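Narrative of accomplishments. A recurring question from our advisory board has been how the design workflow behaves on a single, concrete structure rather than in aggregate. To address it, we present the structure tokens for one chain from the evaluation set, followed by the sequence designed for it. No filtering or post-editing was applied between the two.
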């Protein structure tokens, strides 16, 4: 099937590993198959995967151009209804068996996954599930070349510590979007510390975990004030951000 897309949604489709993990998780879903919501459906590709498993699929997309593509792509599927709306303003009338919501971004900071799920979860049956089911975030100390917040898309950096899990979320839980944590990381080499690397692993279901992919949570590099460190030093760092409010909300510091 040929999909009409916007340039951004075309890049999302080209990341076939991203599509594969969502396809597998939807294929493995084997519970009640009445109604699924696809929140932030983009070009409609995940709704297309859902269409053969569910009696009804309701697909919601805020961006008008993407909505037009999805509406056209899925026009021949009588059980799929595509709606142009911000999920946060949509009046849901029915409870779903499954919510698929791919508004993911590294540590969920720059996209609305958490505000959208906190709202839309009220329209999930008690037995309902969410794909993906959650995420795990890790942090490492780094020396990075660019001194501003950026995603890991080829810029060089040197890792100065082991990787440590600092937070994890199950999307069925109520999640406070205002996040703060502090952690002690042990340097594994001498060097000039000037940043943190955040990596997000996506738990599609109990069996499928996706590491960072080009269009799914590429690692995020965040500056810290420069500090010369030595192997075995413990570095105590704090981080705060608001999930859904963008990378401008990130604050870091030493403790
Ligand atoms: C990462 S894209 C994923 C698109 C598609 N689900 C896929 O997997 O190819 C996230 C989509 O969510 C949409 N979106 C973001 N916030 C939204 C909101 N509050 N309500 C509806 N759509 C939203 C964006 O416009 C974008 O198309």
């Amino acid at each position: 099937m040929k999909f009409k897309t916007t340039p951004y949604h075309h890049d999302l489709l080209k990341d076939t590993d991203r599509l594969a993990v969502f396809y597998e998780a939807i294929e493995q879903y084997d519970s009640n198959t009445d109604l699924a919501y696809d929140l932030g459906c983009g070009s409609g590709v995940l709704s297309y995967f859902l269409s053969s498993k569910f009696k009804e699929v309701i697909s919601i997309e805020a961006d008008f151009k993407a909505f037009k593509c999805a509406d056209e792509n899925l026009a021949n599927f009588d059980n799929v209804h595509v709606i142009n709306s911000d999920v946060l303003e949509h009046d849901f009338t029915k409870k779903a068996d499954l919510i698929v919501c791919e508004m993911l971004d590294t540590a969920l900071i720059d996209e609305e996954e958490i505000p959208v799920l906190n709202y839309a979860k009220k329209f999930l049956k008690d037995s309902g599930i969410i794909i993906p089911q959650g995420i795990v975030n890790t942090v490492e100390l780094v020396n990075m070349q660019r001194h501003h917040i950026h995603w890991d898309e080829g810029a060089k950096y040197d890792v100065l510590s082991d990787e440590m899990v600092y937070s994890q979320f199950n999307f069925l839980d109520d999640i406070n979007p205002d996040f703060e944590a502090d952690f002690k990381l042990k340097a594994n080499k001498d060097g000039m510390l000037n940043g943190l690397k955040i990596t997000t692993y996506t738990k599609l279901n109990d069996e499928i975990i996706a590491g960072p992919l080009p269009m799914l949570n590429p690692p995020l590099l965040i500056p810290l004030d420069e500090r010369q460190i030595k192997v075995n030093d413990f570095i105590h760092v704090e981080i705060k951000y608001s999930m859904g409010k963008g990378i401008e909300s990130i604050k870091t510091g030493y403790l």
